[in-house]
Amino acid sequence: MDLNAVAMFVAVIKAQSFSKAATELGVTKSTISKKISELEAFLGTTLIRRTTRSLQLTQMGAEFYEQCATSLTALRDAAENAQAAGTEPRGHLRVTCPADFVPAIMGPVFAGFMQAYPKITLEVILTDKPLDLVMDNIDVAIRIGNLSDSALMSRRIGREVFQLLASPAYFDHAPPLREPGDLRDHECLIFAPKPELRIWHLQDGERRLRIEPGIKFISNNISMIKTLAVLGAGITLLPVSSCQEEIAAGRLSVLLPELSMGATPIHLVYQKQPFKSPKIQTFVSYVETHVRSQFP
């Protein structure tokens, strides 16, 4: 039985409102509704009769509430005592993050985490589509960009900086890049998971520039763009963190280093729940510690 669902049920009855309980717990109304429906399905009985204006407990719901309300405080105390006593985190942890973000940054972090916490099984879903943490049963998501769902807990772990990059081999057959306006006359490799990214918005201190690069190739995949750039196919605008190895080896060079696309925040996001999950708390703290140093 899901204890978070039980806690949400108790909160709804105390508040006499799904909306008020959602605000109190810091989750969405739809999350609470889904969790209570799952609880009723698990118990095989209806706990609440819902109308447009009121909530009414069934007889079984009233009995269940009576027993649960008096037990939740004791359960929370017991859980906190167990955690304080050093209970080793364990269980299955589902994490999602952008596909291109993992190999360069998260691979070593995941390896270190699994070695440090061998009783946690880590499942990683790589996708550039933002997954719903409730509907897709996700414990933690790594999100790049500004957050839109204020009901989720979040930890900022860094920021992503995009800069102009090219292989030295590209300039064997291309003129030098002396100023941003020259990009219109160069062969450019465009990373554009969204149509608006076909236009490059760059900044140099307070100066803001809107550049329409000479498009030679477009893809929504960083790895593909990076491979072509290393082969000398053109100039690109990519996150520096995903190209550190190529830059260090001299296969890619930063061009006009004073220019960059505005820094994009990187967050860990997870659901706010009445009962803290040791595996989630441990993962969030570990990643925050080991990833933050890799970003400017």
Describe the structure.
Belongs to the LysR transcriptional regulatory family. InterPro entries: LysR-type_TF_proteobact-type (IPR058163), LysR_HTH_N (IPR000847), LysR_subst-bd (IPR005119), WH-like_DNA-bd_sf (IPR036388), WH_DNA-bd_sf (IPR036390). With 296 residues, this protein is of the alpha/beta class. It has 3 domains: 3-84, Arc Repressor Mutant, subunit A; 91-159 and 264-294, 3-Layer(aba) Sandwich (D-Maltodextrin-Binding Protein, domain 2), CATH 3.40.190; 160-262, D-Maltodextrin-Binding Protein, domain 2 (3-Layer(aba) Sandwich), CATH 3.40.190.290. It contains 8 helices and 13 strands. It has helices at 3-15, 18-25, 29-43, 59-84, 101-116, 222-230, 244-248, 278-291; strands at 48-50, 55-57, 91-97, 120-126, 140-144, 152-166, 188-191, 200-204, 207-211, 215-219, 235-239, 253-255, 261-271. Strand 8 and strand 9 form a beta hairpin. Helix 1 packs across helix 2 (18-25) and helix 2 (18-25) crosses helix 3 (29-43). The protein starts with a helix and ends in a 5-residue tail after the last helix.
